[in-house]
Amino acid sequence: MNNLVILISGSGSNMKAIVRQCQSQRWLERYQARVSLVLSSDPDSTGLAWAKELGLKTQVLSHKAYPHLSRDEARNAFEQDLCAAIDSQHPCLVVLAGFMRILSEATVERYANKMINIHPSLLPSFAGLHTHERALQAGCKFHGATVHWVTAQLDAGAIIDQAVVPVLDGDTASTLAERVLTQEHVLYPKVIQHWLENTKNQPTL
């Protein structure tokens, strides 16, 4: 079984797009693929509530759940528990979909070539936060989103695919973000389905 583990923190809009694509394109039938776990770092995540209502397996794992530990100890404990949750699913892909935690090098290396992320800019431009504001300040004519492999260096992994949107006269960070997000919901499921298709067609040694 090709299990997909999706990590979220908020509304989970990209997670929802992936789940809908999984259902509409019959990933289970075609690729033996399913979303086996939606894990949220926020117990109040609306995306988590949506996944629960759909009957998906869900889990909450907050970095705030270790108040008796020092900051470094809490981070280590959180990542150990996170890895245990992911490993329990034996995933083919770990999908970061608005997961608002920067993972350690050890955790990233544990899932090398298995962990992907979507970032709201045309990488390598505007890694990090506030991408839409920065694109407007730079006078960009085009902006977009990037799906990439996750590496220890923030937003620096190999690019898998990108979606491009125009920057329009009068755009604000909010209007530009909305236009980019619409394309994210198309791009991310497409990338995963393409990866599943390629995996299915790889010859068996």
> Can you tell me the number of structural domains?
1
The percent range for strand residues is 15-25%
Order of helices and strands: EHHEHEHEHEHEEH
CATH superfamily: Formyl transferase, N-terminal domain
Helix content: 40-55%
* Radius of gyration computed on alpha carbons: 17 Å
- Uncertain parts: none
Total beta-strand segments: 7
The CATH topology comes to Rossmann fold
What separation lies between the terminal Cα atoms? 18 Å
| CATH domain class | Alpha Beta
Continuous helix count: 7
Explain briefly what this protein structure is:
This protein has 205 residues and is an alpha/beta fold. The chain has seven helices and seven strands.
Explain this structure to me?
- This protein has 205 residues and is of the alpha/beta class.
- It has one domain: Formyl transferase, N-terminal domain (Rossmann fold, 3-Layer(aba) Sandwich).
- The protein is 41% helix and 22% strand.
- It contains seven helices and seven strands, in the order E-H-H-E-H-E-H-E-H-E-H-E-E-H.
- The protein has a seven-stranded mixed beta sheet with strand order 3-2-1-4-5-6-7, with helices on both faces.
- Helix 3 (46-53) links the parallel strand 2 and strand 3.
- Helix 1 packs parallel to helix 7 (173-201).
- The longest helix has 29 residues, at 173-201.
- The protein is globular, with a radius of gyration of 17 Å.
- The chain starts with a strand and ends with a helix.
- The relative contact order is 0.16.
